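WARN no homologs supplied; continuing
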Amino acid sequence: MEWFIELLVRATGRRVRKTDAPWLECFLGKPGLIGTGIYERIAAESELRIRAPKDAGLLDNFSALRGPTFDPNSVRPEIRDLYEHAAQYQLEVWTEVSLTGRFFL
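OK structure emitted
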């Protein structure tokens, strides 16, 4: 399936120079497993240093999401806390594929 997708992209796509589309530059595109050290590797390759407070969040203040159709106060406090203090949580993510899908993958 991967081979077919690559062939389809080559047949229907077009070449783009990185200088014409710098947003296409991607650190995650290297072969192999990404693993838990991906951000440390990216930082090292870019000569950057990771400084993350132990209570860092996705947002400093969940109320920043307020808009004409969204009231942050209507959201459960646990969800607000996750957004404001995500580094205090440990998340586990996995995927499942149906038996039919496994055949193609």
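The chain has a mean pLDDT of 86.
OK
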